[in-house]
Amino acid sequence: MKMMRQAISLEEAQQKIQEITIKSKIANCLLSECLAEILAEDIYAPFSLPAFRRSGYDGYGISAADDHGFPKTFQVVEQIGAGNVYEKTLRPNQAVRIMTGAMVPDGVDKIIMLEKTKPIEKDKVLILESERNSNITPIGEEFKQGELLLAKGSQLNAGGMSLLAAFGYQRCLIKSKPKVAILATGSELLSPGEPIEIGKIYNSNSMLLAGLVKENGGIVSYMGTIEDNREAIEQQFHQLAKEVDVILTTGGVSVGDFDFLAAIAVAQDTCLFNKLAMRPGSPTTAFVFEQAPVLALSGNPGACFTGFYLLVEPLLQRYRGLSSKMRQTKMKLAEAYTKTTDFDRYVRGITINNTIQAVGSDKSSALGNLPVTEGFFKIPAGQTCASDQEVDVCLLPFK
Amino acid sequence: MKMMRQAISLEEAQQKIQEITIKSKIANCLLSECLAEILAEDIYAPFSLPAFRRSGYDGYGISAADDHGFPKTFQVVEQIGAGNVYEKTLRPNQAVRIMTGAMVPDGVDKIIMLEKTKPIEKDKVLILESERNSNITPIGEEFKQGELLLAKGSQLNAGGMSLLAAFGYQRCLIKSKPKVAILATGSELLSPGEPIEIGKIYNSNSMLLAGLVKENGGIVSYMGTIEDNREAIEQQFHQLAKEVDVILTTGGVSVGDFDFLAAIAVAQDTCLFNKLAMRPGSPTTAFVFEQAPVLALSGNPGACFTGFYLLVEPLLQRYRGLSSKMRQTKMKLAEAYTKTTDFDRYVRGITINNTIQAVGSDKSSALGNLPVTEGFFKIPAGQTCASDQEVDVCLLPFK
Question: Mutate which of B2, B207, B305, B339 to test chain A, going by most A C-beta atoms within 10 A?
């Protein structure tokens, strides 16, 4: 099952994935479930806010006609708590006791703060002095009816959710996260929790990809293994293509005799690539199976991790109309990198004082550095890089 | 119910909250549920990794004794897939076909990559040339048995979870997020979804706090309202203090006649403060009710938001042994701030090119700027700030 493979550059591969037609979906969700989701609609103010003239303080409301000649005694005709409505008109020397946030009755033109008053007896108050401001928030001071509250494409945070709640919204339309299936290949794989067996290894890639999908805007909707059997794999893909948006696989893409996945890929009209001119992860393969993009990542953890960020993350973001959250930049290398390779190499690195340096092993199989990797720096094919030399860097998204 | 209040500084208030004794808890969780959780134990490698000599490539394994005189024909005595074990010893001119990741049998000293071989007939292969490297990963190259994998206090990301999975871990101990109860006060409050009523407002603070708690390392385990009745409130606190770690309330802390919460606070021996020398949110109150910290935030959304970040966020982080994720810094003001106040004012701001400027209204009641606020800048009591003047800034955590 050895086959010819034509290596393409990472940039070409990214472009081909960018060109896959995807179907974005929209969901109508309870606002309380929408934290960090992306709005799929513009949302407008259904009424002005405040919707009524609102008292800014606890105090006494008086009319403009009475706003002179202090200190002066007023008759207190009503206590207006927040939420209460007083519909009568004030007569001369009448005041209303009013609380912060309460609706100011018509005919009340100023709120005198409690601190400037002195209760005399039941239903009587001495107002010591006036106020410079009315202490009344006018209707629509913050939002006019029909004004845009949040635009389509905004990410909902606590503040955004509270803004919609303030206008009585209980639900909103959001862009659905892509549903992702994660399939691991390899008869050498044990599941965590199983007893260890000589020659076998625990499957860490499924956990890796599940975490990466969740961290990067996807939903893990299926996890399983791929049998070493071409018909069974195709049958499984056929089922998954109906249920999920994206299929990720690990392993089975090399030139080994059991690498069935590579064979399925080349049999598709829609095979995008089956070799990348990059390390780690040169056998990474991509195709579309009955409309579902399949990204077949290396079974080597370091390569799987790198392939996820460089190829899968931008695809997942696209389902919600977002761009990749990887940050492209240039940084100086803190330590020389002296190994040359045939292909461009993306080395896992950590940043220190705005420089980057390799962290842990750069081997494709290494996984000890995955918890601490902050980004990748690129060593072009055939080159080495001296310390202080500037390199291209892709930083991982902020978490 | 007007009462004397002694205003303390924000720094004093933060210190008092920092001194509340809290009970941290630990949970034993499925690893797959641990994304972004904080490890409560050091985790060590239960075995070396690789646990066996591992083939780095697809190819043919030969003995050191046979590693000369190429090109040379070998008899292929076995096919070793990943996960398989071959226990016999190679004789002269024998080779094993071996896959990437498979266990290298004793007596095999080098893997010749497939590209440097040519199958001749069934069970025979022509090896064209040798390799510089053995292409065998030795036992323990990445981790030695007993080596620390992840330290207590690490935050689990996808990479960390996969590292533990690689060692067969299925569960781990994590620091529990604090359980938080959110209680809104005020008979003026409508729930989102209810029909609007004149004089009333939709409760947006509960949604705000629920989002803020989730964004900042807490679990919302109760949401409700507080009755305007002192005995009922105390009864509710009594119940909640048994069930949750922290109680947050909004509203009811001012000097209004219905502000029962302020009265409950001062009745506690454990009242930490009931007035802050800061705006917005000067009536913010804190006490401990039967071991549960109660942070009674303003009912004004802007003040509630500011109080959460300056007082509650550090408390929530402390339950998991973490420091506040707010970032203290200094920045230049992009635009002059000309209003003076009696107390230090924390103005909601956005950053532009490493400067900060006020965003939206600085009113305590304003909520339009909550979705976009990136931090607070401090205008000291009695001062104004010119543009380009340096101010103290608290930036919100990265999201």
Answer: B207
